Predict the 3D structure of the following.
Amino acid sequence: MKQEEILELLNKMTLDEKIGQMIQIKVNEARNENKDLIYNVGSILNSVGAKNVKKIQSEYLSKNRLKIPLLFMADIINGYKTIFPSPLAQGCSWNIEVIRRIAEISRNESAFAGVNVNFSPMVDLVRDARWGRCFESVGGEDPFLAKIYAKIIVDEYQKKMNDNKLMQASCVKHFAAYGAVEAGREYNTVDMSKRELMEYYMPGYKSAIDSGAQMVMTSFNIINGIPATVNNWLLKDTLRKKWKFDGVIITDYTSMLECINHGIAKDEEDVAKKAIDAGVDIEMISTCYIDSLKKLVKENKISMAQIDEAVLRILNLKNKLGLFENPYGFADENMEKKYVFSLKNLEQATKLTEETIVLLKNKNNILPLNSNKRVALIGPYANNRAISSSWSIFVENENTKTLKEIFEKKLGKKNFEYSEGCKLLKKQELEQLLKVQPEEIRNNMEQYEDGDIQGVIEVANKADIIILAIGEHYLQTGEGCSRSNIEIPKIQQNLLDELYKLNKPIVAVLFNGRPLQLNNIENKLDAIIEAWLPGTNGAEAIFNILYGKSNPSAKLTMSFPQNVGQCPIYYNHYNTGRPDKTGSRYESKYIDIPTESFYSFGYGLSYSKFVYSNLRLDTNILKRNSKIILKVNVKNDSSIAGKEVIQLYIQDLVGSVVRPVKELKAFKKEYFLPYEEKEIIFEINEEMLKFYNENLEYKAEPGMFKIFVGTNSVETINEVFNLIKE
């Protein structure tokens, strides 16, 4: 439709019809006292499947006076039916093609199933492993990665088709700073300076907006003492005015109603007024808008123009998706059957997952394994299909292969033994978890039984090497799953203790959605594979890494703490006036653990050995509007071909405000043949040196800078240069 036709449609709408467009519901949750509500609402949450979507849309249009189509929205953060690794794991690939390809397949599968809007990417900066939603953050603790990945995902979701219509719209979330909740506790308070917010937490969202993201979802937390959902400075002044965002703002699930609990509003009417004044277009699930907007208009507490602005944005989005011409969008039963969970997608899933698996330890090069060695596969995740994230809401676990099944297929019975070892959780842990989980999930949870330790020992004694599949349950990580203890569950530690007594090599494969505390088990393990929540073909990808069919190349995007007492912990921290340098008592440190992380940001091993040398700059003087050419030699000093992530960090040595010890500014992922040496080239420019000063001015300041290049944020070589005024 042309814009004038959209405006004409808007003018034909009654106030009730306009308010309906500003409501999102689940089909099965339309309130009994308002049965006609479903035929006026603007969007539906998490109803999928081409046949189902077409049926709902058809019935809706038959009863909607102006034939305004519904929007179907859903969370497809790491795949629809073909489930990929969690976003945190995807980010660990440091490979833009991996990020792009996962977004492409996720978009296609879900679009053919009728999804018009994808609640992704989630680019919340996360520095605290206690927070349950770490696994959703594609950029982890780094704003530069969040910027890069956000652009790739939005661009891929929102590729225009031949008729110049979007196949799917992207909704960036959660705006803003949701990952900074105090104590890592879900839905908790966020309190920080605006400078800190703009410098570190906003770049990911801004990148998504600059890339054309059509929607923004508000977060549950407060910013500057005001909930994000009714925050004028955040939504109107920053997002709408400063960033020029003219798309749709939607609340998170009931976050509007929750403003009453925050103590910022006295009732639903008060919330509704504050939200529309801040520029919120759609309320998800709760009913403040439907119950209050009409009354607010009649009492002249809000204007009809405010309603019209919101509805026009919603209609424009539907138009960009081509729904007025074809209300079913790309929902297609034939394409859904042909494409969704196709063999090609599954093959891609294996290859892409391999690039997200991080090798954390490899003592005496025990990995890759020799297929002639007899292995014992032990642990509660060795034969477990539930290895996708808790937000993989459309996963069909029966289609997920387990490690045991892959090992049996690849190795046969000759060189392979298996034992579960123990259940996932102790009885009391399981009972506590079930108190907060829906009934349909409870039925899929394993019940606790004492492990048959003697049987496990007998199995392990038959093997040359033990592969131990351990971690946290997928329901222990995700929304509503903040944890004060991020260790491997005690029952699994006990299993490791018993196996350690056998004096056999042990390789741990970790399944988890957040960084874990590993310092109490690391010394008992010869190798550690961080598999995260790897999804549908995760088991095959893990096997390929273990046996050297694929060389690990992933690097951490979140620091692993020494223990939970360090949280929040992150690499790009500030120095203090008394940094931990000399060993003096009176320094900024702990007396019982090291100051630094257990595994650093950017860390990850390979079966190859990479050596860095000969870092050089073509000049040590950077002038405004010029550049420095940096060159460094990187050599694969091994007989195994592999990929290496070359990371570049910069430190501003003296600034008008305190600057971080280092910040990631560029990276390249390169493939090296055995013993191949390459000259890697980066360009350094003034834009890379900019930051927000005390007055929230974004600019670079003249002075001396240190530049670091290396295999992670700690192991680097460095040089210095000066930015000067001309």
User: Anything to note?
Assistant: Residues 440-449 have pLDDT under 50 and may be disordered. The radius of gyration is 26 Å. Residues 346-566 form a domain with the Rossmann fold fold (CATH 3.40.50.1700).
